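Aim 2 progress. For Integral membrane protein (TIGR00698 family), the working sequence is reproduced below.
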Amino acid sequence: MPGTWSPGVAFCSKKILRLGIILYGFRLTFSQIAEVGAPALIIDAIIVTVTLVGGYFLGSRLLKMDKETAMLTSVGSAICGAAAVLGAEAALKAKPYKTAVAVSTVVLFGTLLMFLYPILYRNGIIALSPEQTGLYIGSTIHEVAHAVGAGNATDTATVAIIVKMIRVMYLVPVLLVLAFFVVGKLGDSESKSGKKKIAVPWFAFGFLLVVMFNSLNLLPQNLIHGIEVLDTFLLSMAMTALGTETSMDKFKQAGPKPFLLAAILCVWLVGGGYALAKYLAPALV
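Predicted structure tokens for this construct:
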């Protein structure tokens, strides 16, 4: 990569990335959350917590992965795919190749589930009501785009997308926890006073403020759609910038363990998510 590109790449992988996460809030409103109610909030919380905590300890302790890669991979499966990985990367200040590896796991297994869920549903293997199926898809699939694809293929898109966007909301508290996690576990730099600095992810609060503003319905839908298109472009720029700082040698350096961890988490999402949608959701209604 030409040296003259470095400032632009750094700008995209940091400033543009944070702006993209903030504008991501225009995809969700609090009224949408109220429509699906307590089952979505509780099941999403369980999925996010178990996937994040379990994935981190499984990756770092059992698979002996480095902590940053284990956390980034777990965040991608737990919350909202690449957008969550990018948000966590900004909070953890991880190396670009680790972020690229984690995003790759999201793309691979999220795409797999996008095709798998409709096949299982159409063949009666997913024995759930349409509402439960939408809850199942939204609470376990990786990307928002994957939720749209699987939801449309099973005629449960509305519920699936809303449940998925509620998972996106959990990105805010997770990033705050990660900010403290950096200090305690990942060796953040120390200040002159000897105390370790906490890198507060202020863009997470920006995301939450945008959700609050979007809930007021002050902007026309065509403008909201335009902002979503712009946001997709900004996040694409950020991921491209991360890609320019990554090489196949670094993928080899990461090895197969991130993909093994993502595969294990995928099995948990499919099996555990199904059990929660089938047995817990009706009890919460």
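The chain has one domain: 8-189+200-284. This observation will guide construct design in the next reporting period.
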